[in-house]
Amino acid sequence: MTEKIASLVKSLRVEVPDCVAAGVIDMSTGMLLSVETVDSHPPEVLDMLAAATLDLFQGRNVVMIEGIFKERRGVVSDRHYFQEILVNSDNLAHLFLRINSTDEIVAVVVCRKTVNVGMLFAQARRVLKDHGQL
Prior knowledge:
alpha+beta, 134 residues, five-stranded antiparallel β-sheet, Beta-Lactamase
């Protein structure tokens, strides 16, 4: 499993346009499983990324909103409603994607803000699909 995750992160880092960092987070533990970046970052910053990703996808209010959306749309499923989230900062675009094979794993791709957002989504989705089951 560790080799598959490391391979996925490397592929995201290399194949997604303007990518400066990629990582994979286990939502059940809140741990960063693997990361590759063009810059060095202190471990505490990377740990905060994992914690922020957990809040972004599974924070109390987010889970409540997901429940309301599913209820209003008649969706009966344990699957999380939110699957992808794009966050733009001043200089970067951060794409968070749940891995289809499990809701508990999230891939994160960080690109320069100049990235073509359509290509960011297309390439990240393709890489995840190419890597299949984790």
